[in-house]
């Protein structure tokens, strides 16, 4: 009996120690280098795409084998940091472009400068390249980016007596159009709202940047939140909300759904800000909805149609075992061929300039129209980069803007307070 | 065969041991030194509880101490862990406005949800303690919400609380009341959560029901003879007799209410804490610091401050319990 117990105890211990000892060696039985590649692309559309790219890469040479690990969106970056801390990170990971500098400053990502030359650097859009560098060193290669555009319902335009080929170009026109497109029910609720600036994918921060001629909430790493133009943007949103009625706005928002219930697809809202991939949803669930796409309206005739964007990068977590092999794979993913494939099938804006050119030549029909528009929009797209000194500025700013939009405090007070709170939070 | 044999041997050993033990206990006063056999037994004892000990040291005490140390550093999980003294604590009380918002929200929730759910559970238990045909069916129905839990319930309530089509506002409309937008209106988000908590009083109800059935019938009979009505009987017999359970329920649900997190995380847009931060609870703010911006040192400091707050409150609970909790045994223990 005791022997039996001893065996169990010893067995348990062995099991525990086996769990904790990570794989020290990354080469497999055939002598190839194995790379673990983490993405959050698990959907029916994206998973087969990334796996096809991986397969192509694996077949293209016989030194490196890449394995795909799908980690859900909500977990991936937390798990990545935990893995870095434990000394056993993935070899390549897709990560948020806006926070590369934070990871670089915290020593959580490998410096890849030694494998970067001017040709490689110049193959990407310059504002994306800025985002992946920290203190003149490169820490990631940009993979995708995006830009918000205005999708508008052409049928609704015709019904309201507007020209469906002339989308609004300024704030003034946007409001005029929206007024014409807004239709009430008999019971006082809204059958259709033309536009409301705090819905969709272009909201408070975005309109503030749009109003301030493309200047963000953080410029040169310091907060620039309470500028007159940004205050005007929030005031404009507040007035718009008052006019529609704050209760009506809340009620409508609570009803917004996905797929066929999407407010733009179901005809509840006639103009809607979204990124290019919205095209995929419109294809699938839009039926015969007749719609157009335009760059975001500008503040006035003299300013540019500023939009905002984000994006993703490919990077090597700190402590990865085979950075050189990892870099080869990243280069492949951000090179013309893979980028063209990704952009054509996904309507993501891609980071590689040459590939973007190819896609516009390859696409036709509605897809080409949207991709073309997104290229125009990209010229005036602001990428909000979170400065390492203020990692939580959004958490401090957003509730104050909420308060201002709810009429609890004045816009002036809200943004002055936000500026002060963010300045104080410097780390 | 061999198994049986071993088994027999094992039994005989234990028999021998127990004999030995009773003998040795007579000797302990004069001979405190442990015999070889009981030493062996002790070792085996420790081996048997080893899984728990390893779990406690490795998964509870270790991390606990680690977080205490971390709270005095700028630990960010990967690259740095520099000693910063009381900086995290200072920042909490002097710089971070969200700390106070989150503490206010949490205290608001505790102050309303704990008394209301306790009272609700007592009332429901009282109603279900009647002798009536089919009472068991009602007990089951009232207990059911406590069986359901977690995210599914939150999604259900998000639909119930939907401003224009939700069931709550539809019912209110029957009475001519224009219901609020609940989860979309900063003033109504916390009451909405309190209401949601009230729905699942079934767990507490079960405890009260059990203890109410344990109240001696003789007391009620004596009171009836003296002419006491049912209200008097409730306030003078039932309520005093169940105070130990009310006390237990209050202590555990206060601690539980301070830990509110999932509700806010699931029921607000991308877990940010709702409109105007009205649902930014203490734990949510802590979580955001720990796992959104990886400010682990600050988050650990917040955890310890919460621990101290809850400890003080529990201490006060115990202190004041002497004034209102009645123990039948009479020794106030």
From TrEMBL, chain A:
<dbReference type="InterPro" id="IPR050490">
    <property type="entry name" value="Bact_solute-bd_prot1"/>
</dbReference>
<protein>
    <submittedName>
        <fullName>Multiple sugar transport system substrate-binding protein</fullName>
    </submittedName>
</protein>
<keyword id="KW-0732">Signal</keyword>
<dbReference type="InterPro" id="IPR006059">
    <property type="entry name" value="SBP"/>
</dbReference>
<feature type="signal peptide">
    <location>
        <begin position="1"/>
        <end position="24"/>
    </location>
</feature>
<keyword id="KW-0762">Sugar transport</keyword>
<keyword id="KW-0813">Transport</keyword>
<dbReference type="Pfam" id="PF01547">
    <property type="entry name" value="SBP_bac_1"/>
</dbReference>
TrEMBL record, chain B:
<keyword id="KW-1133">Transmembrane helix</keyword>
<protein>
    <submittedName>
        <fullName>Multiple sugar transport system permease protein</fullName>
    </submittedName>
</protein>
<feature type="region of interest" description="Disordered">
    <location>
        <begin position="1"/>
        <end position="26"/>
    </location>
</feature>
<feature type="transmembrane region" description="Helical">
    <location>
        <begin position="296"/>
        <end position="316"/>
    </location>
</feature>
<feature type="transmembrane region" description="Helical">
    <location>
        <begin position="241"/>
        <end position="261"/>
    </location>
</feature>
<keyword id="KW-0472">Membrane</keyword>
<feature type="transmembrane region" description="Helical">
    <location>
        <begin position="107"/>
        <end position="128"/>
    </location>
</feature>
<feature type="transmembrane region" description="Helical">
    <location>
        <begin position="43"/>
        <end position="66"/>
    </location>
</feature>
<dbReference type="GO" id="GO:0005886">
    <property type="term" value="C:plasma membrane"/>
</dbReference>
<keyword id="KW-1003">Cell membrane</keyword>
<keyword id="KW-0762">Sugar transport</keyword>
<feature type="transmembrane region" description="Helical">
    <location>
        <begin position="192"/>
        <end position="211"/>
    </location>
</feature>
<keyword id="KW-0812">Transmembrane</keyword>
<keyword id="KW-0813">Transport</keyword>
<feature type="domain" description="ABC transmembrane type-1">
    <location>
        <begin position="103"/>
        <end position="317"/>
    </location>
</feature>
<dbReference type="InterPro" id="IPR051393">
    <property type="entry name" value="ABC_transporter_permease"/>
</dbReference>
<dbReference type="InterPro" id="IPR000515">
    <property type="entry name" value="MetI-like"/>
</dbReference>
<feature type="transmembrane region" description="Helical">
    <location>
        <begin position="140"/>
        <end position="157"/>
    </location>
</feature>
<dbReference type="InterPro" id="IPR035906">
    <property type="entry name" value="MetI-like_sf"/>
</dbReference>
<dbReference type="GO" id="GO:0055085">
    <property type="term" value="P:transmembrane transport"/>
</dbReference>
